[in-house]
Amino acid sequence: MKNLVIFMIIGILGFALLVAQGCSFSTANMSSLKTSKDEAGKTEASSFTTGDTLYANAQIANNPGKVKVKFSLVAEDVKGLNKGDVLKGSEVSVEIPGDGVAKYNVPVSLGFLAGTYKLNADMMNEAGEKKDSKSANVTVTQKAPEPKKDDADADDDK
What we know:
CATH topology: Coagulation Factor XIII, Chain A, domain 1
Shape: elongated
CATH superfamily: abc- transporter (atp binding component) like domain
CATH class: Mainly Beta
Strand content: 35-45%
Mean pLDDT: 86
Number of domains: 1
CATH architecture: Distorted Sandwich
């Protein structure tokens, strides 16, 4: 009888150890969000000029399943926009299976108003629940418009 109890305890502990190895007790998270002017993200940047492209990489870690990273660019201090206004066309969702990098890019077109924006990255689980988020502030300045060729020619005629 005593041997049977010991055998059962060893069996239960062995089964618990087997289950523990198959389960991950770590939580999926977004370990970083970096903005840059180059697609590879080698050089971080937070200041952009119209004509640039804003690239962002969100590093997802300890992810046993699939997550979706939702990016959006929001006005913070921009003349002509209310704080919190989401820029049209800036919302993008990227699905990441396991650990990896969610990549985002948006061209800083001439339609961008000068000011400070916040790039938000929200990590959602498969049930649509927000599990982590990061944000990065970016500043946009407008490039001075180039003079029209016709205007320059007209000045030469005078």
